[in-house]
């Protein structure tokens, strides 16, 4: 590891980190497939708890966030506005922090139901921006701070508002929090692969919805 902020526990295993990531994405896909118009966020989280049991989730390292409609503008620190239900033509995102085999997964993505072309464009933009920033990390060896500066510039060029309060974070063997690594967006060093989550949150410049995407930075950086 190149920095004390990348410390891990004695049981840390990169293969188990990759497996936790894969299983977390499988759980998220299952939740997505069960989302139906009419559900509110509390009902969606109750459904998610059933999915966790079905997939053998060991525990949660952060509570699930399922944000619907205007609540897609909220960060994880902000409570949702109550009473928001998934409409027939609407947007939602799912953010999961799961533990499998003592290792943490953290995945998030945004989806639409019905006919919601503007919301779908926002969701696609969040994924595209993630790919762009992750590619810059792999090819240019950018620090965490530089990655988020680049993300903000690219989001503006794409015509979306970038949420600078979301800055990514560490993962590891549970609990990674004992290492007090701080945010990816404050990291002056180049983040090592398989340890840091890149989070992207966008908002429509004039409409009350946004999109969220996150995943582990993997592959060799420059």
Could you name the ranges where pLDDT drops below 50 across 5 or more consecutive residues? none
Distance between the termini: 15 Å
Please compute the radius of gyration using only Cα atoms: 17 Å
Largest sheet: 4 strands, antiparallel
Mean pLDDT equals 95
SSE class: alpha+beta
* CATH superfamily heading: Creatinase/methionine aminopeptidase superfamily
Helix content: 25-40%
Q: Say how many strands there are.
A: 7
Q: CATH topology, anyone?
A: Creatine Amidinohydrolase
Shape estimate: globular
Please, how many domains?
Answer: 1
Number of helices: 4
Work out the strand percent: 15-25%
Q: Any idea what the CATH architecture is?
A: Alpha-Beta Complex
What is the topology?
Elements: H1 14-34, H2 41-54, E1 59-68, E2 90-100, E3 103-113, H3 117-140, H4 144-158, E4 161-162, E5 169-170, E6 196-203, E7 210-216
Helix pairs in contact: 1-2, 3-4
InterPro entries: Creatinase/aminopeptidase-like, Pept_M24, Peptidase_M24B
Protein name: Metallopeptidase family M24
Organism: Fulvimonas soli
Account of the 3D structure:
InterPro entries: Creatinase/aminopeptidase-like, Pept_M24, Peptidase_M24B. It holds the Pfam family Peptidase_M24. Residues 16-215 form the Peptidase M24 domain. This is Metallopeptidase family M24. By secondary structure, the protein is an alpha+beta fold. The chain has a single domain (4-216), classed as Creatinase/methionine aminopeptidase superfamily (Creatine Amidinohydrolase). It has helices at 14-34, 41-54, 117-140, 144-158, and strands at residues 59-68, 90-100, 103-113, 161-162, 169-170, 196-203, 210-216. The strands form 2 sheets. Strands 4, 5, 6 and 7 form a 4-stranded antiparallel β-sheet that branches. It has a 3-stranded antiparallel β-sheet with strand order 1-2-3. The longest helix is centred in the middle third of the chain and has 24 residues, at 117-140.
């Amino acid at each position: 590891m190149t920095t004390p902020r990348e410390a891990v526990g004695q049981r840390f295993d990169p293969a188990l980190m990759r497996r936790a990531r894969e299983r977390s994405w499988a759980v998220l896909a299952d939740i997505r497939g069960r989302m139906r118009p009419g559900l509110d966020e509390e009902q969606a989280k109750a459904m998610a708890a059933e999915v966790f049991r079905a997939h053998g989730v060991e525990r949660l390292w952060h509570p699930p966030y399922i944000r619907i409609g205007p609540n897609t503008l909220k960060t994880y620190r902000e409570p949702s506005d109550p009473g928001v239900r998934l409409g027939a033509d609407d947007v939602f995102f799912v953010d999961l922090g799961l533990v499998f085999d003592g290792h943490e997964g953290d995945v998030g993505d945004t989806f639409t139901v019905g006919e919601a072309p503007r919301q779908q464009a926002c969701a696609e933009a969040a994924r595209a921006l993630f790919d762009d920033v992750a590619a810059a990390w792999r090819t240019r060896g950018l620090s965490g701070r530089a990655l988020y500066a680049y993300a903000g510039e690219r989001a503006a060029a794409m015509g979306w508002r970038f949420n600078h309060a979301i800055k990514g974070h560490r993962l590891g063997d549970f609990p990674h929090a004992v290492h007090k690594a701080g945010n990816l967006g404050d990291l002056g060093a180049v983040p090592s692969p398989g340890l840091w989550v890149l989070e992207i949150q966008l908002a429509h410049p004039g409409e009350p919805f946004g999109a969220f995407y996150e995943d582990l930075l993997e592959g060799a950086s420059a």
